[in-house]
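Can't paste images in this forum, so I'm doing it all in text. The chain is below; anyone willing to post the predicted structure tokens underneath?
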Amino acid sequence: MGVLKKFEQRLEGLVNGTFAKVFKSEVQPVEIAGALQRECDNNATIWNRDRTVVPNDFIVELSTPDFERLSPYSGQLGDELAGMVRDYAKQQRYTFMGPIKVHLEKADDLDTGLYRVRSRTLASSSNQQAQGPSAPAGRPGGAAPGGGYGYPPAAGAPPMPASPPPAQPPASAPYGGAQQRPPAGPMPSGRMRYWVEINGNRHQISRPTLVMGRSTEADVRIDDPGVSRRHCEIRTGTPSTIQDLGSTNGIVVDGQHTTRATLRDGSRIVVGSTTIIYRQAEG
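Text version of the structure:
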């Protein structure tokens, strides 16, 4: 059974169905949980062959109405989300620099049903003393429709290297402070490559257009009841764009409901309850 399904089943048994009543709006806890998983995947930093560090301190920003409805349950919901992150990290063999924590915050710029995830890696005091003040920083998550500080690595986790990789950002880098190591040499030049990432799977875009939908005739099939047979189309170029093909539920790009949008590397596209990451790189 998948981590998200287990998380959903745990919520169903809590507080005699309280969460079921609270989450009748567009924002669903399993969607927030999925966003936290993606935040881990997108910000994973490989320290060595046996150790990949992911963020452990998360903020979930909600619209004012959603926050006011959920804030009375923020403690319990945060604990459940943190547990889900911990389970997912164990499955993926990720490790943390400190305890997992998930906080809810109000964001005045978000409409009802939208949320945004921010994360960072925050080392515990014991890790800072043992490893020195260095850890990878997280990147901001995009707003999504729909609507884990974790514990230190468990016993038996691979030991940290004596000298962490160079050019690591500070352990307490601000939320959303995207910092990456400089490349070892000049970036290779060449033709632009395009692809999308869906549920951890990479799909190359080898033609000028890519149709996504529930139909078996789509270039990329998405098995999601909220997705239309021919839901949307990506056109690669300078810039690349995405176009809604008259779908029932529409598309959300980087937190905005739209029928057409310009894409950038890392753009988050939401169709139904599925999140698609658009990628492009030269090489």
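The CA atoms of residues 208 and 237 lie 8 Å apart. The radius of gyration is 19 Å.
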